[in-house]
Each structure stands twice: as C-alpha cells, then as structure tokens.
Amino acid sequence: MKERYKSLVAVFLILTRTSKDGNSKEILLQKRENTGYMDDYYDLGVSGHLEENESVKDTIIRESIEEANIKVDANDLKLVTVFNEKTNSLEYLRFFFHTEIYEGEILIGEPTKCSEMGWYSIDSLPNNVIPHVRKAINNFQNGISYEENGFK
C-alpha cells in the first residue's frame, strides 16, 4: 500500500493585551536569531512544530512554557486562522490561536534562538515581521479564518 503524504504542522499563539493607556491592542513578538530561518525577523512570541502524539493545542501549551515562560489553558485558546501553504519544497499547515489569558511572567525561554521579546502595537508592527506572521495577524484582525497559498 502506498504511504500517505504527510505535511509539516506549525502552531502559533497570537497573544494580545490592552495597552497600558487602554487605547489599543498589543501583541507579543519575539525577534529570531541563530535559527537558520528568518533570523533578525519578528515572529509571534510563541510558535513551534507539532510533535508526534501531540495535539495542536498541546503544542501551544508546551511552546508557551518553553519560549515565553507562561502557562496557557487549552480552554482559553481560540483558533482564529489556518494557512495551508506550499513554499519552495515544503508544505505546511499553520494553525494560529488567540488568547489574552496566561499565567506567569513573560521571559525569553530560549535565549539562543531569540534576541528580544516584547509587546508591540498590533496596528504598528515592526517592518521586519515574518510575512506569513504579518498575514496571520491581518487575518486575525479581519476575521479571515482560512487561506491557501502556493498551490496551482
């Protein structure tokens, strides 16, 4: 029997909060370094790849602890957009979840892969945000739940 095709799966957390002045939304971003992929670009504060025998929500929970030193609850995670993307020779399913609820103090959990982490205005992002992350934030703001890219 022919083996079924397997796609890579990545998950992302769009973690937001209300700004201190109460007038806008902020989003947690991290600046990548020493990863070999989009170094010196901003990614969402929490992201990662699905591991064997792990649900996408479990991946977010694990990555939140590993990358940002925070705990999130599966019940607080809302799936906001999914990308089915083909780039170069890779095909990805990318799941983006949102929450504003977490426990703990945000700290860089992987200092060898992240040069900075902080809150940024969701309406005024840095210029060097990874393109699919920028698109996901836009989809989140505009209620776009699904997108396909790179297929014939």
N/C terminus separation? 27 Å
Overall tally of domains: 1
Helix content: 10-25%
Average residue-wise pLDDT: 95
Radius of gyration: 15 Å
Name of the CATH superfamily: Nucleoside Triphosphate Pyrophosphohydrolase
Q: Look up the CATH topology.
A: Nucleoside Triphosphate Pyrophosphohydrolase
Q: From the coordinates shown, what is the CATH architecture?
A: Alpha-Beta Complex
* Oligomeric description of these chains: single chain
CATH level 1 class label: Alpha Beta
DSSP helix count? 2
| Largest sheet: number of strands, sense, barrel closure | 8 strands, mixed
Judged by helices, strands and strand pairing, the structural class is alpha+beta
Which parts are unreliable, with pLDDT below 50 for 5 consecutive residues or more? none
The total of beta strands comes to: 8
**Which shape, going by the Cα principal axes?**
globular
- H/E element string? EEEEHEEEHE
User: In percent terms, what proportion of residues is strand?
Assistant: 35-45%
